[in-house]
Amino acid sequence: QVQLVESGGGLVQAGGSLRLSCAASGSIFRIYAMAWYRQTPGNQRELVAVITSGGSTNYADSVKGRFTISRDNAKNTVYLHMNSLKPEDTGVYYCRVTVPGGSAYWGQGTQVTVSS
User: Fold this and answer.
1) Angle subtended at Cα 104 by Cα 66 and Cα 21, rounded to the nearest 5 degrees
2) In b/e form, how buried is each residue of 89-106, taking b as 16+ CB within 10 angstroms?
3) What's the CA gap between 32 and 30, in Å, rounded?
4) CA quadruple 80, 35, 96, 41: dihedral sign
5) Phi and psi at residue 75, in whole multiples of 5°?
6) Tens place of pLDDT for every residue, the chain, 116 residues?
7) Is 94 in contact with 39 (CB distance < 8 Å)?
8) What is the CA radius of gyration of the chain?
């Protein structure tokens, strides 16, 4: 089993910045992709950013140029640096990791609220 603990959410004004962290622990031999998703009321969970074990990244069009995903493999931790935040970035942010065998694990979610 893999446990994910997220932190860093909160309330910020539009134009501000936040950094989310997600630390994985448990029976981890190797982690493949690490990703951040977000969900807003009435909407499906959407992919925000993903980073592979090799460091390749991909972003949703809505956050390109504003968000940066990174990972520290030694700490089994993934980060999401969010700049120039907009009210539409408000939502619950979840991290997700994929491990060998195809299993995926989700964090509990952290609330991000951007006020206008």
Assistant:
1) 40
2) bbbbbbbbbbbeeeeebb
3) 7
4) positive
5) -105, 0
6) 889 999 999 999 999 999 999 999 987 778 889 999 999 888 999 999 999 999 999 999 999 999 999 999 999 999 999 999 999 999 999 999 998 888 999 999 999 999 99
7) yes
8) 14
